[in-house]
Task: inverse folding
């Protein structure tokens, strides 16, 4: 009888120990994912403001001196973004990509006004592409793409969604400069048309990806609202694409101001960035 009792105690002890180990592991993983969500929220703010700096600085360098104040204001916003990243800076400070972005930005914010128009755009595009890669790295290293079986497809939030917004951000920057300069050359015309096609392709891939996630059993509460909101942005994005073809290439002179063009294009980006926040908020209860 004593042997049976001892055996039972041993079994229950092992079961209890295993439970505590699994509980501790789940809590550690949940904490890791919460830190990941926080980092993505902060990095998305940084992304938004760097994209704005690209567009406004391109307008300034193309001759619209009135945008200089807007550029200065955005620089101050980026500085605030770095401050908000301070609580997690130690986590990412050793990440080569993070340090590369940090040093690149600190050079660019000072030197952009002395760059050529083309080099300014290239520098910003490279900086922002590395930031997008960093966002994907953070999501992967914090295991946000495999939270639960019904959250499959959530990676579109920090991949296709942000890539679509970035495509619009690139054409916003290019278009703001074209409007500020009063016209475009053949190379810029080719670039605008390339970006128009890329935006349409990325938007289609985003919608298809969300629909596939639903079809493959992902949570309707997570995916369906995102799909619905993305679909609602199609009309305004297509209007921007049409405007690019008509206004930017107009032979009778561009009638819209560079500030108005920047604002119009921004209204196509903002709903996508809002969806990024909404998507992360819908993931939080699943952590």
Result:
């Amino acid at each position: 009888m004593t042997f049976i009792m001892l055996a039972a105690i041993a079994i229950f002890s092992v079961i209890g120990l295993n439970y505590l180990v699994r509980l501790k592991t789940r809590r550690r993983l949940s904490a890791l994912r919460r830190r990941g969500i926080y980092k993505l929220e902060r990095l998305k703010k940084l992304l938004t403001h760097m994209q704005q700096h690209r567009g406004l600085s391109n307008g300034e360098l193309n001759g619209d001196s009135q945008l200089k104040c807007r550029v200065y204001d955005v620089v101050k916003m980026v500085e605030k973004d770095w401050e908000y990243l301070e609580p997690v800076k130690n986590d990412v400070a050793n990440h080569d990509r993070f340090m590369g972005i940090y040093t690149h930005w600190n050079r660019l914010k000072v030197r952009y006004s002395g760059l050529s128009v083309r080099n300014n755009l290239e520098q910003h595009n490279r900086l922002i592409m590395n930031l997008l890669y960093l966002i994907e790295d953070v999501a992967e290293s914090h295991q946000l793409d495999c939270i639960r079986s019904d959250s499959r497809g959530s990676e579109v939030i920090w991949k296709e969604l942000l890539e679509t917004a970035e495509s619009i951000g690139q054409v916003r920057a290019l278009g703001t400069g074209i409007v500020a300069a009063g016209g475009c050359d053949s190379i810029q015309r080719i670039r605008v048309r390339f970006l128009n096609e890329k935006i349409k392709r990325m938007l289609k891939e985003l919608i298809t990806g969300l629909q596939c996630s639903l079809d493959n059993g992902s949570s309707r509460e997570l995916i369906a609202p995102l799909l619905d909101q993305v679909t609602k942005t199609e009309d305004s994005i297509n209007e921007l694409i049409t405007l690019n073809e008509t206004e930017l290439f107009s032979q009778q002179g561009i009638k819209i101001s560079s500030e108005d063009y920047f604002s119009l294009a921004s209204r196509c980006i903002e709903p996508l960035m809002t969806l990024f926040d909404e998507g992360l908020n819908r993931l939080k209860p699943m952590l």
Notes: The two ends are 45 Å apart (CA to CA). The chain has a mean pLDDT of 89. The longest helix spans residues 2-61.
